[in-house]
Structure formats: structure tokens, C-alpha cells
Amino acid sequence: MKRFLGAMNRLALALLAATMAAILVSAPANAQRRDKALEAALMAHVTELASDAYEGREPGTEGEAKTLRYLGRQWFDIGLESGTNDPANAWFAPVRLVAREPASSTAAFSRKGRRLFVPPGSIEVFTSGKRTLLENAPVLFLGRGVEDAGRAELAGRVALLLDDGRDNSDRQNALLKAGAAAVMTVLDGDRTLEQVKARRGRSGYALATEELGGDLEAFITAEGLDRVLADSGVTLASLTALAAEPGFAPRPVDLTVTLEATTRETRINTHNVIARLPGRRPEAGAVLLLAHWDHFGRCAEDAAENQICNGAIDNASGLAALTEIARRLADGPQLDRDVYFLATTAEEIGLLGAHAFAENPPLPLSQIVAAFNIDSFALAPRGTPLGIVGRGLTPLDDGIMAVAKAQKRKVVPGNAANAYIQRQDGWALLGHDVPTVMVSSSWSDLARVERFFETDYHRPTDQVKPGLDLSGTAEDVAFHVALVRHFADPKKVPSPAK
Question: What are residue 102's phi and psi, to 5 degrees?
Fold first, then answer.
């Protein structure tokens, strides 16, 4: 009887083993690799950093202080070193911001030395600096475009534009970069001066400098310009018709203008967090991973029940991923190249922390062989293909595809994700010639990204909710560990030329 029972038990175990083997063979490859411990660790970070105790992680607040302490403690315990290369500011690199809002605005027009009447309330002047003054500058009419304006024509002149119906800073910036002393837009469409003032009256942020001046932009109503042009033989209607003619070229206007604007400043002291995992051959260059730590603090109206923008997905999830990537790299064999970990401030108000890092880096930027930004990494479940923000813009694509093949990760074809290239810290680094991309399953489906933008993005509802799925984030962490190991190997990725 005992022999019979023993045989039955052996048969049952054999059948169980065969069944389990069949399940494993038929299960998707990704299901075998699911790392629930990693998902739990990621959830713990996101839950902590997106809690109300951090008050929305606004730069210059107690929420920032708590965020920096949390990251510093985590990264120190992992075994990272300070990466600032500044003994006076270990771990936390100071970033000084200035918030500016318009304070005063004046404009005066002249023709042949005679002062012209400007109707009150018909023009507003704005500066990006503390105080900017431009005196007796000639006016050049450019219609609605900038293609035919050369530096010699624009130098020292005020570029006069017809409105295109948008707050088109790219158009103004292109003219200022090309040499215009200022840009004046005629509100000849539906946009009103009050709308412009309401939009431009909000605080604007920049890296703090000791420079006094800045760019000048002015907006004048159609009625105001017609009054200034009175008795000149030119009207707004005639200028508009001229601009519509084939072959239109920029035309001087018989006017000179004096513009002045000032702002009120608020200084904000904030910080980037920079850590380093030393490699065996730091002279061979470095790999950089970054994620922004900041969000909007208390962002809702005072009467709202939930006033805090917690930023769970944007970007507590990125900080969680960055931290767990660091842990796995630190626990593995030492790499050849150094790996830097950067948590940036002030991404939400203009990528300012990334710009500050690039302007005062802890190592020559030319030594960074690859940089990978990590932003909003909790939008997709496991098994989702990867998307690349920045595809085709750097030499990194071949290496990324090689790692994806080795890791059996699919990558969506094309460069549709580049629609978001200017909306993340990688754009700031690309502007300083640092090869930077963002690789994530979260950014492989534009419809999914847009749903996030239309619902929780930059709202108090971006918080830890029941059912928050971090399985895709965990897969992306594992992929980035492999990605860093690839790019940290000089045999696979040659050192940058000196």
C-alpha cells in the first residue's frame, strides 16, 4: 500500500511539473520576467513623493526641502557619491531663479523729430529683464513673416509685425535672434490688448543673472497704430495690402519709437540633485540619467477641495525609476564609465534646472556619451513597446536598437514621439549638444499620452490612485539598466573625440 501511495505521489508530482513547464512555455516572455518586488519599490517611492506632505514639490518651498532630503538619503544608501564636484555644495547644486511680472510700460513715437500722439491704453511693452530701454529706434515693417528679413536690415530696428492670432514667441524670438532691437505686433485680428496683458501679466521664470536688460516686445492696437500713422500717407490697411502682394519685402516706416519696460522680481533659491556612480575608467566619458523632481505645488483655486498638484505620474514616477535604476547599477559589477544621476529643478517652468546643469556642469559636456531623460514613466502596462523621444536627432539610435533586440523589447517605428521633444528636459541638453533621448513604453502611443494630457496632467488629479499600474515602469527600469551598461562600455560605444 505504501509503495502504491508513493508511486501515486511521484506520478502527481511529475504531472504537476509537466503542467508548470507547459504553462511557462506558453506564457509570454514578459510574464516570466515580471518583477513584483521592483513594482512594489517603485510604488513606495511614488506614494511617498506624491503625498500631500510634499505639497506638490514646488521649488523654493518646504516641499522642495523634503524632496531633496528624500532623494539624497535614498541615493546615499544605495552607495552613490555626490556628483556636483563642488565640495561646498555636495549633492545639491544651487540653482537661482528669478520670477518676473510686468511693472511699468512706456512708448513714444516720433516722425522727423516731432512727437506723435499715442492714444492711452493702445500699447503695452514687455521685457524679459529687470529694466530695458530702447531710444529713437527706426521701424521696419515685416508683414506677417520673417523669411526675408536679414540681419543688416533688422539691426537696431523695431520689427513691426501683423498679428497671426497666437502668442507666437517663436516668431518674435527668431527676429530678436536675427538682430531686431525689439518686436512690435499690431493686434489687427481678434486678439485684444487686454488678452495679451492678461497672458503676459503672469510671472515668467528664468535663471537669475546680474544683467539689467532683456528682450523688448510691444503690442499695439490697430486703432493705436492708425493714429500714430496719421498724416504720414500710410495706413494700417495700406500696409496690410502691401504685405499681401507677391514678392513683398520688408519696408521701412517713417517712424522712430522709444520703448521702455520694467518688471518686479522675486528671487528663488532651488537645487538640482547630482550623484555619481564611479566607473573604472572615468577618462572614457560618462553616461547621464536625469528626471525632474519639481511640480506645481498648490495649483488649484483656494475654494477647491483638492488644491495640491501632487505630480504622481509627472514626475514622481520618473524619480522612482531613476532611483531604482541607480540601485540595480550600484548592486551590479562596476562599469567602465562613470554614471551620473541628475534630478532637475524647475522643469515645469522652462527646463531651467537642465539649462543650469548644462551651463555649469560637473564634467565637460563633451564627455557625456549618452543622456537618457526619464519623465512620466507610469502611463503604460508591461508588454507595451518602447517609444523614443528624440529618435533621429542623436547618434544613440543604433545602440538603443541593439539593446532592445538583446532585451527582446519591441520599439515602435517612426519618430512620431518627437512631437514631445521640446516639452522635456532632454530638449535643454540637446541645445547644448549633449546627445539626449527619452526611451519609454509610456511614450510609444501618442493617443495614450494625449489622454493623460487631457485628464490628469498638471492637475490635482495626478495622484496615486487605486489600480496605478507600475508594471510597465518596472520593465522600463530593467531596460535602462541594460541601456546604461551598453553605453558605459567603451568597447561598444567609443569615447568621444577630444
Answer: -55, 140
